[in-house]
Amino acid sequence: MKYSNLFLREKPLREPQRPEGLFCIRPVDLPYLWGMLLASHTGSLLEAGLDEAGRGCLAGPVFAAAVVLPHDFNPAYLNDSKQLSAKRRAVLRTVICQEAVAWAVAEASPEEIATFNIAQASYLAMHRAVAALAVQPVHLAVDGNRFRPYTGIEHTCLIKGDARYRHIAAASILAKTFRDERMTKLAELYPQYGWEQNAGYPTLSHRAAIRVYGPTEYHRMGFRLL
């Protein structure tokens, strides 16, 4: 399944605005309030940031997002999704989806993870996200240290890129929030595993539930479940 915006919009330059509903300012937040994340790696206006979510999970698909942002896009608190509360991720997701030049989210299934391995399935999800963008980027800025080249578009792997670049941070937020929504829906089918809380990650309670109830078709059978 893929999600994306369907059109390209031109936007006027503007001062960075603080998203509504974010009130507490901590010292750790100050670099992001001051806009210290970089707009892009190459300086291109059509550089896409890529990131994935769910790579280390025991259950569910791996998700990936690709995002092209206006160079003046710099909302408060934009950062690696793992450093944000669920409330801030939700607010920022709305802003990203509304104001991005282009964005897309895609996934690779547990079956594809079993077939190709988790690394290759993550690259597959990223490739699907890039293919679903409403505009083709000229460069890909990929979080991490490895990537399978996408035909026709150069890329750069950037370690901790989601804490250094705005478009990768945005991609991390979209990938995580869309995946969390999927796992919450799957939890309605299998409430005993607590996926609405653990999102499929290997928590003690998740492994305890696997021990009692066994795995489901959404579990990654190539992973060490217990």
Topology pattern, helix = H, strand = E: EHEEHEHHEEHHH
Q: Helices and strands: which structural class? A: alpha/beta
Termini, distance in Å? 29 Å
**Residues in helices, as a percent range:** 25-40%
Shape: globular
Estimate what percentage of residues fall within beta strands: 5-15%
CATH fold-level topology: Nucleotidyltransferase, domain 5
Q: Could you say what the CATH architecture is?
A: 2-Layer Sandwich
Number of strands: 6
How would you describe what is shown here?
The chain is α/β, with parallel strands linked by helices. It has a single domain, classed as Nucleotidyltransferase, domain 5 (2-Layer Sandwich), CATH 3.30.420. Helices cover 35% and strands 15% of the residues. The protein contains 7 helices and 6 strands; from the N terminus they run βαββαβααββααα. It has helices at residues 30-33, 86-99, 110-116, 118-132, 166-189, 195-198, 204-213; strands at residues 3-4, 47-53, 62-68, 102-108, 139-143, 154-158. It has a 6-stranded mixed beta sheet with strand order 1-4-3-2-5-6, with helices on both faces. α2 packs across α5 and α3 packs across α4. The protein is globular.
